[in-house]
Design goal:
Blueprint lengths: L1 H6 L1 H17 L10 H6 L9 H31 L1
Helix pairs in contact: 2-4
């Protein structure tokens, strides 16, 4: 199992970044007990902000990446692991 993670560290790193963009653009409430700088990081930009479209594009690319990562696991990693 560790070999799988070690061989795919770049892919897993991109997966973590993708999850960050999806959480940032989601409508879930930010937990009150989090420090202020973390709340600022996960605050969704408003629609009149120019960065909103960039974050929206990154969110869509992140969703596509996660779908392709799951497909990669199902097609390549699981059959070769056995």
């Amino acid at each position: 199992m560790r070999r799988i993670f070690r061989n795919n560290t770049l892919l897993i790193g991109i997966l973590i970044i993708s999850i960050f963009f999806i959480i940032k653009m989601s409508n879930i409430a930010i937990l009150l007990w989090l420090p202020a700088f973390i709340k600022e990081i996960f605050t969704t930009p408003t629609t009149d902000n120019p960065s909103f479209e960039v974050y929206k594009l990154l969110e869509n690319m992140s969703l596509a990446y996660i779908a392709s990562f799951i497909f990669y696991i199902l097609v390549d990693i699981i059959p070769n692991h056995k």
